[in-house]
Amino acid sequence: MDKLWVLLCTGLVFLMQAGFMCLESGLTRSKNSINVAVKNFADFGISVLLFWAFGYGIMFGASQGSWFGGDNFFFSADTQGDMTVFFLFQAMFCGTATTIISGAIAERIKFLAYTIVVILVSGLIYPFYGHWVWNSSGWLKQLGFIDFAGSTVVHGIGAWVGFATLIIIGSRQGRFSDKGEVNKIQGSNLPFAVLGALFLWLGWLGFNGGSTFAFNNQVPKIILNTVLAGVGGMIMAMIFSQVKEKRVEVEELINGSISGLVAITAGCHIIPNPLAIIVGMTGAAMAKFVSQALIRAKIDDAVDAVAVHGGAGLWGTISVALFGDLALMKMPISRIELLLIQLLGIVIAMVWAFGLTWLILKPLNQIFPLRVSLEAEELGLNVAEHEAKTDTYELLNVMDLQAKTHDLTLRVPVESFTEVGHIATRYNQVMDALEQNHRQNMESLEELYAVTATAVSAVENKQFSPDDFDAFCDRPDELGILAQALQEMITIINNQQEQLQVLSGETPENHNQEIRILQDTVVEILTTRFGQITSQLNVSIHKIKNLSEIADLLKKAISAKSIDDFL
């Protein structure tokens, strides 16, 4: 074993953890991005600890009946120094298999429940299946099953565990409507997701290249196959997206390229370079087919992890028998026999990973619900699970509170030199202007109430004094114009009242004259307040001969807000 080469590849495979973190955080909503990131961080630590304690021993220890290893528990470099680099490399693989699950079940599972899934995978499911395939004495290995770098051992196991967990915990709120509609949940940061995909590509070079355990003549071919398959998957996804959606979607490109990488992983050492592109393209097609099948079944995979790692991993494992160079396998076996063996290994992985996960988590979910509450899911797992608030959360929280309370004095905390901080600053400036405008409107409204109350009081008490409106007449706005008009009308009324007093006590002709004066006064008030009135209304007013009715009409002319209100 070339220790320097394997150690370098160990670092590259470790970089895949960062790749998965970026990818999954970018493809999920911002209110859950911290939760997704910390799950990727935590599952690596838990999986490596369990792999060190007994996972490595189960997987690579002395085989007990070809089923599991019986030694090398609590690995120590002091006693097994020559194998330390190998242990580290395999620990990274265990971490990769575990973190695949995180993306599939993102945005709805409790953090503690996720740690239980991690323990189940890294401490039990992955090591046992890994022993069957990669331990020289494992029973699938003895049959001739080939999975060079883990299309099924790593990616398939992670996908099938995620699949079982998805069925148990259900889909995210709003993903599928009651009418059967499929609603896309947009990721919060697609450039971040693309960065994660690039990290994965880089890590995959060590993932596949390091599985030779020596920097030999196979390595360049393996790395070239890896790159070509990734490119082939990307091209196929681009074509599918353009044909179906009439546009190239970012998520399709990301998942297509990763599907190609997953597919080539099983046979990257024995598949000819030109065929690596075919394997990558068909792997992406298989992933798309599985993704559509899951959607039709209303199974909500947040990042298409089951389709990408399970579907493409399945196809990649079969591709070993379909496209592999039999001469390089050094086994006296036909292509048909190898195909049957590959299918057997795939079925065993699905039954073992899916079945054991279902048998353990299904009853556990009845006792300890794995899924967060609907309130926590709506709030977001960043806050609900970790109390990790972001400036975006603070902004939305204040906006929601203002919408409920109508309190214009609330302001958003500003985090300087960030995009959300700039938005918060502008939002606060808008709220300042709204609050000032609202205050001015309230003051104007109060003054309008005062003018109206003065006019109504004058009408009710029959005490008309133009001086009552002096405080408002100097205003340059509409309120000042109204006060001036009222002042003019009151002056007219007072003049008419003086004339009525002169005529009081005289003949019926004088009484008729009094009514005529009141009728003219009503017409003049209406004309002053609302403009020229119709001749029909003028005639109707002059037909009224009762002094009391005319007086009531006069009050109505003064208090009416519009000509329609008067009518």
Could you walk me through the main structural features you see in this protein, from its secondary elements to its overall organization?
With 567 residues, the protein is mostly helical. The protein folds into three domains: 381 residues, Ammonium transporter AmtB like domains (Ammonium transporter fold); 66 residues; 111 residues, no CATH class. Helix content is 73%, strand content 1%. The protein contains 23 helices and two strands. A two-stranded antiparallel ribbon has the order 1-2. The protein is elongated. 42% of the residues are buried.
Could you give the topology of this structure?
Blueprint: H1 3-26, H2 33-60, E1 63-64, E2 68-69, H3 84-104, H4 111-134, H5 139-143, H6 151-169, H7 190-209, H8 218-245, H9 250-265, H10 273-296, H11 305-323, H12 326-329, H13 335-367, H14 374-379, H15 381-386, H16 391-405, H17 419-461, H18 470-473, H19 478-503, H20 508-530, H21 535-543, H22 547-559, H23 563-566
Antiparallel strand pairs: 1-2
The gist of it:
The protein has 567 residues and is mostly helical. The chain has helices at 3-26, 33-60, 84-104, 111-134, 139-143, 151-169, 190-209, 218-245, 250-265, 273-296, 305-323, 326-329, 335-367, 374-379, 381-386, 391-405, 419-461, 470-473, 478-503, 508-530, 535-543, 547-559, 563-566; strands at 63-64, 68-69. The chain starts with a helix and ends with a helix.
Subunit arrangement of the protein: single chain
| Number of contiguous helices | 23
Shape: elongated
Low-pLDDT stretches = none
CATH level-1 class of the largest domain: Mainly Alpha
The largest pleated sheet is described as: 2 strands, antiparallel
Q: What proportion of the residues form beta strands (DSSP E)?
A: under 5%
How many separate domains make up the residues?
Answer: 3
Distance between the termini: 103 Å
The CATH level-2 architecture of the largest domain is identified as Orthogonal Bundle
* CATH third-level topology of the largest domain: Ammonium transporter fold
Structural class by SSE content? mainly alpha
CATH superfamily of the largest domain: Ammonium transporter AmtB like domains
Q: State the helical fraction.
A: over 70%
What string gives the helices and strands in order? HHEEHHHHHHHHHHHHHHHHHHHHH
